[in-house]
Amino acid sequence: MLIKKDPMAGNGEITESTERESHILFRHQDLVKFLKSANKINRKNLTNTINHIHFTGGRLWVHLKDPQYEEDILVKVYPEPCTGETITCKWSEENKTSFGHYRFLNLLIDDGMTAILVPVKSLRIDGNYFSINLPEAGQALKNRQARRYTSQGVTAEITQSGFLASGCLLNFSPFSFRVRVAPGHGGTFHWLNVDEPLVLRLYRDEKIIFSESCRFINQTGSMSVKEIVVAPIIDQIKRFRSRKIRSPRTRLAPSSSITFEHPFSGKPMQLDLHDISVTGFSIHEREDECALVPGMIINSININYSGILAMPCTAQVIYRRKEKGGVFRCGMAILDMGIVTYGKLNNILGNILDSKIHVSERINMDVLWNFLFDSGFIYPKKYHFIQPYKDSIKETYRKLYQEMPEIAAHMTYQENGCIYGHVSMVKAYERSWMVHHLAAKPVPGARTRTGISLLKQIIHYFEGFYRLPAYKMDYWICYYRPSTRFMDLFFGDFARHFRNPRACSLDLFAYKDCSTASSQENLPDGWSLREYSNSDFRELDRFYRNRSGGLLPDILYPQYSHSNDETLEETYKRYGLVRKMKIYSLVHGEKLKAVLVANQSDLGLNMSELLNGIKIIITDPEYLPWDILSSAVGNLTDIYELEKIPLLVYPHSYLENKNIPYEKQYILFIMDMQYGKELLDYLKGRLKTKIRFFIRFLIKRYFNK
């Protein structure tokens, strides 16, 4: 244990060089000048401390003076149970050499925060043991700004402009790290510039748990292996882009906590939760117990709500800030959380903000069906279309709303068990989620508009939703009719306001029913329907980029995926559900004329069956006859169980130009969630405008009365 002066410490910092060394030089003899102002620790407390060290298998140090070289050394020893009058210590295995000719000065106890010195006034040595009489009091010197903790099982890397050294983390505090490292192959410590910042990376079980710029403090060792002390440069990191309006922070009642295994020390920890939102939370640490370091990633942490619900997640310490009363407030960002767990967290927070909000709860299906009919979502023509399959649709909805699969999410606005607002999403493509229902109706006698309240909670939900890797949400999509003013007011207006179709696009489709009973027809000579290829994608991309410039090809043919990822089809199958997609190319010779996307899903997964039909993107509208396209569609309809399936045709003008009647139009809204911050900021701004307008309306109506 080396005692050295550290510019970050108050009275001098005691730092343990390594647990493996049996005895080391004591280099800070001026420690005794601080003992006059040290606190006293009485014999009773001293005895309890020693017995606790024995109980946990810990060690003490004995401070000796070598008479030959006049050197002070510290030797590791292990205490026996202490009764209060005397203490007996056993030499460590590597220290069985007799120290009888040494002068015994002090027994030293270091708990990571405070050094306790017990003067040796009487001594009895017996083989592998020695005993001393305990004085009435020891002297406790609080010599660190913060407690230093020993680390186990953490790999360390130091890099600086091409220099690399790797090894392990020895110990740490919130202010500094001590690592033992050796230079990489072909490197040398001569390359390490101690006057410049360096990057420290720490790993546990091959997962990164820390990576930040640090400044050099000091070093010891040889040119082959060094122990280096570094300090983080900043005490706050910016994990995500800042927002104009933050998600609301809530204090949970009853009180809750977080539990985790500290990634650096491997020790279990429990801390009280101060406040929480859908994106993160904060806790308080006492000054003498601080163990959280800004930038530290905790890969397995439980948010414990009222002792009855544990919500696991991955979180990162964002800041550490001193507050009144000698406490530090630490803010933590949620980096990842399971879909079902995130729904539970949102349900708790949503209920606190508005008791009528319910997120991803199991729903009484009779109440839900009543709402879908009463709100007009299932109108007569739609019911006529789905009624032959009502039993299959009921079973699909039961799985979605009661088995809580990770491919669906929903939110309701309820009062006394009745639903007045509802929004739901399903995972529609490999990395895309689709809003497939949004409806609201007034609560009798209520002044609050249900749609506004529901949209407000949707925004809170999305604050954390789209950033979580578990959701695999690169894109957010929604189909809506151009006449649906509520949807166009928020989502359509944002796309037009943002004016960047590669971030947010609107594409207009023509919707046409297609019978699946017609017999398959062979395509004329020179025409063929084949599986989609990479060369076809390049042609489609060129056409679509010049026509729309939007994001449709990106959701159909995602570029980002891992080979070991579970496919969307496999995920649905795991829950007893169906979601398939196959893409075909209609070509004349080798010229691409259209791309046909055959979507399959369970009946009612989307009530308009937009995920159970064929999406058609026509790349050569002028030279594609309708009868050829119709024959190509007929070759794909035998996979469907419905009597009719929807065709969504882009560009919508194709059917008009061919004088082909169609039923209606749909706008496809696609949002690249890299720009999720801009969307949420815009929606919050629009929502505030609508709320102000509604308040003025109520005031005006009140005074008119």
How does this structure look, described?
The longest helix has 29 residues, at 676-704. Residues 1-20 have low confidence and may be disordered. The strands form 5 sheets. A 12-stranded mixed beta sheet has the order 26-27-28-29-30-37-31-36-35-34-33-32, sandwiched between helices. Strands 3, 4, 5, 6, 7, 8, 9, 10, 11 and 12 form a 10-stranded antiparallel beta sheet that branches. It has a 6-stranded antiparallel barrel with strand order 14-15-16-19-18-17. The protein has 705 residues and is of the alpha+beta class. Helix 2 packs across helix 6 and helix 6 (450-465) packs antiparallel against helix 13 (676-704).
Q: Unreliable runs, pLDDT <50, ≥5 residues?
A: 1-20
How would a textbook summarize the main sheet?
12 strands, mixed
Shape verdict:
elongated
Assembly classification:
single chain
* Estimated structural class: alpha+beta
Average pLDDT, all residues: 85
* Order of neighbouring strands in the sheet with most strands: 26-27-28-29-30-37-31-36-35-34-33-32
- Report, as a whole number of angstroms, the end-to-end distance: 82 Å
What is the total tally of β strands? 37
Which terms summarize this structure?
disordered N terminus, ten-stranded antiparallel β-sheet, 13 helices, elongated, 705 residues, twelve-stranded mixed β-sheet, alpha+beta
